[in-house]
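Justification of computing resources. Each target in the renewal requires a structure prediction run like the one illustrated here; the chain below, 180 residues long, is used simply to show the kind of job we budget for.
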Amino acid sequence: MLIGSFAGALLVTSCENELKDVPKVSSKKVPILVDKSLGVEIIYSDSAVVKAKVFAPLMLTHKTTNPYYEMPKGVTVIFYDEKLEEKNRVTSDYAIRRENEKIIELRKNVVIRTKTGETIKSEEMFWNENIRRFYSNQMVTITSPRGDIGYGTGFESDENFNYTLRGGNGIFTVPEKAIK
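Resulting structure tokens:
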């Protein structure tokens, strides 16, 4: 019984001290450093050759121990070939780039238009800059220039959009001579 009373008194005392410290802790303000940029255009190049351009109406730069760039009003990324001709275009309504991990998350209405005329759509897509791969574990729809539609539960691609569709099915045009 004495041990139970002692434990109860210790518990009440420790809670009292913690509650007493709450105003001190909550009054300490930690600044969150965020830079706001409007009408952003970023050019990515390799050996003085432009590889891509990024456009965002608003970019928030979060300067934390794990810095990231947030594009809450959407982003457009245009990839270029050696002749500076557009080869692929990626758009989304929201994006975030995690600086340390070198990963870009594209969310909400992600649309990719490839140089071959295909349109790839999803609600989420990731670009891993380290391994230069796009991937998604969300539903993906791919429409070809001739109207074929493919659906998948996952997607993986290199930066030229040579892709693999997981859990795929779809509606495809079969040439008449292939049926005979």
